[in-house]
Amino acid sequence: MSGETGAEAHYRALESLYAAAPINRLFQSRLEIGGEGVSRIHFTVDPVHFHAAGAAHGTTYFKMLDDAAFYAANSLVNDFFLLTTAFNLLLTRPMKEGPVTAEGRWVNGRRRVLVADARLIDAEGEEVARGTGTFMRSRIPLATLPGYARL
What we know:
- The chain has one domain (6-144): Thiol Ester Dehydrase, Chain A (Roll).
- Helix content is 21%, strand content 42%.
- The protein has helices at 6-20, 58-74; strands at residues 29-35, 38-45, 80-91, 98-108, 113-122, 127-141.
- Strand 4 and strand 5 (113-122) form a beta hairpin.
- The model has no long low-confidence stretch (mean pLDDT 95).
């Protein structure tokens, strides 16, 4: 992050915040924010994430879709942490073991409520799920959160 200012510093600080979240000890993953309103999360589905029928449990779908959409939206907000207020999921294919990418994209809103969507792409390039979320500004300043540091 050294020498970065403005939006790029904010994106790197959000990536650091994501990496510092305790939940990500259970879901090994890496966030990339490539620009305003877009995010990408790389992760691997492991058998530890499976339900009884041998594919990823819905919690894995939700977590990765929510995170990708959330960070796409929060890339536009540099002062406060956003909160998910609603999220709709469409699960189209079972996720098996292997690499998956969650792609997030801001859709609408910049003031109080933001809308973003996300999709999950498996190793074969197939979309396995998509979702849309609404996010609102909290009263939690980003600068007070462990992991969010602009250098």
